[in-house]
Amino acid sequence: MTQITPHGTIDENLRYSQRGILRSERIYGEGFQTSGGLRLARELTSALGIDPGAQVLDLGCGSGGTCLMMSDDYQANVLGIDRSEDSIAIAMQRSLSRKASVTFRCADFCEIDSGALYGDLVWASDVLMYVRDITSTFARMHSWVRKGGRVFGTDYCRAPGTLSSHFVNYTHACGMALSTSEEYEAALWGAGFEHVAVEDKTTELIQQLKDEHARLEKGKRQFLEEFSTNEFEYLLDRWRQKIEFCLTSNFEWVTFSGHRPI
Questions:
Q1: Partners of 150 in the beta sheet?
Q2: Which residues span the domain enclosing 57?
């Protein structure tokens, strides 16, 4: 049963329950918990030069869509890590029917020691916004990237300057610990990465969010065959808020990358 808070919204603690994951996939697409879904994952990875047999770490892999795509499209060996037991259970179940070189692990990557993992590419999509210390996190990620390899990801950032109280309350309720894009760039350089790039893609995100919002509205009938009216209204409102926060210069959305020197 869906749990409702006194304010009439879905309990944020249940967003990564099995029901919450499957509910969000009705917008993002199967296997995805990030805006843009499979289309964007393919678009971004196409520029990364992933070779067959490459070792890839997917931090905050969710229900495994990007992991399976990188294995299918690039014949990469992928380790997906997520702290949500339900996300990992869904990802593992789906991988059983695929001939994919993918392993899933339920763990908090912020608690994994430096040097304990290895990858030609470390991928992190819309997950570091929940990390309170990106400086030490990027330092740990640097230790996981082979020499000559790279880190790449997308993330929500907070805009510099004064933020609206509505936005601050929203991010607090969602458990976000947002940094600025400038702080991302400084943390990447500070961790020892080179050729660092942090690019503002907020305009692209706004269009993605609008498209997803429209798709949800169009698919209302099918959505309500499995989920409640309250859940439908919750998702519509959540997307409206994210669009508003981008348009009012509270949210920024960026891509970030850096290479580990040889």
A1: 121, 259
A2: 12-259
